[in-house]
Amino acid sequence: MKSIMDYSIKIGGEAGQGIQTVGDTLAHIFARAGYYVFSHQDYESRIRGGHNFYQIRLADKPVSCSRSKIHLLVALDKESILLHEKELSENGHVLYDSFYLKEKFKKANFLDVPLTELAVKHGGSKIMANTVAVGAVAGMLGMDLMIILEGIKRSLAKKGKETVEANLNAAKAGYSFAHEECLTCSFMLAEVKNPKLVISGNEAIGLGAIVSGLKFYSGYPMTPSTGIFNFIAEHALDFGLVVEQAEDEISAINMVLGASFAGVRAMTATSGGGFALMVEGLSLAGMTETPIVIVLAQRPGPATGFPTRTEAADLLFALHAGHGEFPKVILAPGTPEQALSLTYKAFNLAEKFQIPVILLTDQYLADSQWSYDGLDLTNFEYRDYRLRGEDFRGLKEYKRHAFTESGISPLAIPGEAEHVIVTDSDEHDEDGHIVEDAETRIRMVTKRLFRKMPLIKKDMSPPLLYGDINPEILLVCWGSGYGITKEVVDELSADYKIAMLHFSELFPLPEDETWLDIFTKARVVINIEQNATSQLAKLLQMETGIKIEKHINRFDGRPFTIDELKEKIDAFLKRF
Amino acid sequence: MLSLKDFEGQKPAWCPGCGNFMILRAFNEAMVELGLAPHEFVLVSGIGQAGKLPHYTRGHTFNGLHGRTLPVATGIKLANHKLKVFAVAGDGDCYGEGGNHLIHAIRRNPDIKLLVHNNQIYGLTKGQASPTSMKGILTKTQPFGVISETFNPLAMAVALDCSFVARGFSGYSEHLKELIKEAVHHRGFALIDILQPCVSFNKINTYQWYKARVYELDNTYNPEDKILAFQKSLEWDDQIPLGIIYRVNKPTLEEQIPVLKEEPLVKQKLQLGKGQELLNSFY
Fold first, then answer.
1. Which of A428, A459, A490 marks a domain boundary?
2. A213 and A333 assigned to the same domain
3. Under an 8 A CB cutoff, do A255 and B72 touch?
4. In terms of CA atoms, which chain A residue is nearest residue B46?
5. Which residues of B touch A423 (CB under 8 A)?
6. Is residue A220 domain-shared with residue A332, that is, in the same domain?
7. A288, B59: Cβ pair inside 8 Å?
8. I need a surface site. Which of A207, A432, B122, B201 has the fewest CB within 10 A?
9. Which residue of A has its CA nearest to B79?
C-alpha cells in the first residue's frame, strides 16, 4: 500500500561539496525522529567535480527503494537543476543559493537560501554552508527544530563543544530562513515515534562478520567493497580483530587462507576485478578445504567498467570461479537485514563444510541505507566447528583430510597438539601429502564434492515468495533486486494477483524443490536483473531445467527506481 | 630429546644428486639442534621442486600455490604468532611469480624465515630461465639467450632494509644449518637465498661452478653496516659471499599490532557480547 507520507529528497552537486555529509546527516536525523528512510547514492569515480547525487526517501512506513519523482531538490550546483528539475513532482521545490550558483531563478517553487552568507554570519565560516542546508531542508519540510538540533548534537558530539555550537547556530539560521521564506511549501509530516536505525549493505556485512566471530580481515581497497574494510578496521581494536591491507587481492585471499588454516575466522572483500585475481586462491580453498568468506561487491564491468556504479553481472563468474571442481556456496542478500543474517550463515557454512563461501552484493546494496525499527542478533549463536585443545590432544592420530562418511574431516588447529597438520594444493592423501594415484584421486573428489554437496544443499533455504501465494504474475529477482521488486508487487497487488520470488541463496539451490511448482502455476513469469544476459535465469535453467521467457534487464550502471520498473512491467502485462 | 628420526617424512621425488637433499638435511639438523619439534612450526611452501620439501620432513604444512607462500605465511603468523613459521620457495616461485609479495613481506617484517632454493633455473617445468638465470644462457623458451638482467635478491632485500639477509650454499650444508639457526634466533623477517645446483637442467651453475666461487664471510665482516652490506650483496661473478650479509633489529609486524600485544589471535576470546552495543550505534 502506498504510504500517505512519502517524500523524496535529492541532494545534487559536485564531488567534494559534501553531498554525502548533507545526505547522511539528514537521513540519520529523519530516522532518529522516527521516520523510515531509504537512501541511495550516485557518484562518479573522482574526488572533486563532476556530478553526484544522494537521494533520500522519507516515509512513515518502511521503504526499500527510490522513487523517480522528487519533492525537494537541494541543488549545490547549477548542473543539479539542469539535470534534475524535470524529476520534480507536482508540488516539488528546489533549494539553492543564488550567490553560489551565480544565477537567480524566478520560479515560485525555487527557494533561494543564502547558504554561504548564513554560514559565515551564524556559523562563523563558509564551511558551515552544508549545515545551513540541513537546517533549511528541515525548515522547508516543517520539521520540529528541536529534532534537528538534537540530531546535529549527537552526530558531532565527538568534535568538541565549539564545533557543535557553531553547527547548531548554522542549522538554526537555515531552518528559520527556509521556514519563513518558503511560502509555497506544503509538506505534511506524519506523527511518528521510536527512533529507527540506519544501516547500509556494507555496514551490515561488516557488523555481520564481527558478530559471527570474524578475527582476521585482509583486503585491497576497491569500490564498492571498501566500506566493509573501513568498518572492520574501525572496530578492530574494540573486537580484537587483525586487519591487514594486502599488496594485491592475490595476497589478500592467501593471507585469509593462512589465517584460517591457523584457526581463526577470516574474510576478504573486493569487486569484480579484484575477485578475478582471487580466483586461483578460491580454488586453493577448495582443494585444501579451508573455510573462507569472500565478499564480491559487484560493479559494472568488463575490466574497470563503471567503478562507482551498479550492476549484478558477476553471478555466473562467481559460480564458475576457480579451476577444477569443488563445492562452494553463493549467497546474495537483498537488504542490509539479509546481509547481516547471510554473513552469519556464510561463516557457518564455510566452517561447517570447510569450503569457500561467496557473498555477492553490488554497489546499490553496498552504499544504500535502509532503516529498521531494530535488528535481531539473538539468533547469532556462535558455533565453533574446529577441533581444538583437549579434543585434539586426546586423539591417537590425526589426518587433516581423513575419509569420513560425511566427507567432512575434523579441522584441527596447528600447535594445539603434537599431531602435525598437513594440507596441499596438489592432490593429496588423507595425511595431506602429495599423491599421484588414481584411486586416491577418486576417493578425494568423492569426499570433497559428492559427499559434501548434498549436505550443503540441505542447509540452503528456498527462494522467498512475497505477495499473492497463488500468483498469476510472478516477478523473479535476486540480490539487490529485492527492495524495488517488493514495492512494485505492493503497488500492483491492487490490480493483479502478483508475487515476487526472490533468490538470496543462489548456489547450490536447496534440496527441497517444492518451490519449483510456482513456475508452472503462474501465467506470466518475468525475470528482472541488473545485467544484460539474465544470469539468474541461466542458473535456474542449468540447475532446474526451468526456462524463463520474459526478461527485464538494466545494464546502464544505474539502479531501477520503482516507477521505472513498474512502467516496464506494465508494458509487459498489457501484451497479455 | 629430538633426533633426526623425528623429521623423517615422505620419500623424496627429487632427482638423484639434487641440491635440495642437502638443504633438507641442513633444515632437519637445524630443527634438532634448535629443539623445535614438528608441531611447533609451520612450513608454507609453493610450487616447484622446493615446494615439496615440507613433505620430506615433518612439521605443520601448508603447501599452497606457486608464488603465494609469503601471504599464506603472513596470515598464519598473524593468526598465531607463537608458531614458528618458515616459508620455502624456489627462485621462480619467490622471485618471479611471487616477487610482489616478497617486496611487501620485507616491508611488513613478520617473524617469518624464508628459504629460497635458488638453482637459477626452472626445474619442475624442465629448464626454462628463472629470474636469477644468468644473462645470455640458452634455454628452450629463451632460444636467443636470456635478455633480462639477472635478479639480485640480496641487493633488493638490503635496499628494502630487510631485517635479515643471508646466502647459503647447498654444498655447504653445515654452514647452511648454522644460517638457518641464526635466522630462527633473529627476530624479524629473514631471507636466506640458497644457491643450489640443478643437476638436470642447469649445466652452467654446477657444484664445481659454485665451489670455485663461493667463500664464507668471516668475523671481520660487519653485517650491521648497511652500505657495506649493499656492496657485499653486489658481489657475484668471481667471488660469491656466503653468510649473513645484512642484519638489523627492528619491531616485527606482529609486535606492532595492538591486538596482538599479548595472546595470539587464535587464543583470544571473542567479544561477541559487545555485538548489541555495536548494533545500537546505528541508531
1. A459
2. yes
3. yes
4. A425
5. 61-63
6. yes
7. no
8. B201
9. A259
Chain A CB contacts of B49 under 8 Å are none
Q: In what order do the strands lie in the sheet with A464-467?
A: A464-467, A498-503, A473-478, A524-529, A550-553
| Residue B172 in grid coordinates | 655447504
Question: Which residues numbered 330-359 in A keep a CB inside 8 Å of some CB on B?
Answer: none
CATH of the domain at A65: 3.40.920.10
Separation of CA A30 from chain center: 21
Q: How many folded domains does chain A comprise?
A: 4
pLDDT on residue A45: 85
CB pairs under 8 A between A and B: 196
Write the class of the CATH domain B4-280.
alpha beta
Q: Which residue has the cell 547514492?
A: A41
Task: Please report, for chain B, the start and end positions of each structural domain, with discontinuous segments joined by +.
Answer: 4-280
A427, A459, A491 — which closes off a domain? Answer: A459
Q: Which residue, among A42, A350, A79, has the nearest Cα to A224 in the 3D structure? A: A42
Is residue A168 domain-shared with residue A269, that is, in the same domain? no
Domain span at A530: 464-574
The pLDDT value given to residue A576:
61
Contact B63 A263 (CB under 8 A): no
Q: What is the pLDDT of residue A16?
A: 87
Report mean pLDDT in 10-residue bins for chain A, 576 residues. 79 92 94 96 88 96 95 96 96 95 95 96 93 96 93 87 94 96 92 94 98 98 98 98 98 98 98 98 98 98 97 98 98 98 98 98 97 95 96 97 98 96 98 98 98 98 98 98 97 95 98 96 97 98 97 96 91 79
Residue A192 at interface with chain B, using a CB cutoff of 8 Å: no
Peptide bond connecting B71 to the previous residue in cis, omega within 30 degrees of 0 = no
A203 touches chain B (CB under 8 A): yes
A377/B275 touch (CB, cutoff 8 Å), yes or no: yes
Contact A262 B76 (CB under 8 A): yes
Using alpha carbons, select from A403, A486, A395 the residue that is nearest to residue A442.
A403
pLDDT, residue A1, reads 40
Q: What is the sign, positive or negative, of the torsion defined by CA atoms of A221, A227, A229, A230? A: positive
Alpha helices (H) in A89-159, listed in sequence order: 98-101, 115-118, 129-141, 145-156
B-facing residues of A in 9-68 (CB < 8 A) are 31-32
Q: Which residues of A221-260 are buried (b: 16+ CB within 10 A; e: fewer)?
A: ebbbbbbbbebbbebbeebbbbbbebbbbbbbbbbbbbbb
Q: Between residues 102 and 161 of chain B, which touch chain A (CB distance below 8 Å)?
A: 103-104
Same domain, A215 and A181: no
pLDDT per residue as tens digits for the range B177-232: 999 999 999 999 999 999 999 999 999 999 999 999 999 999 999 999 999 999 99
pLDDT level of residue B19 (50, 70, 90 thresholds)? very high
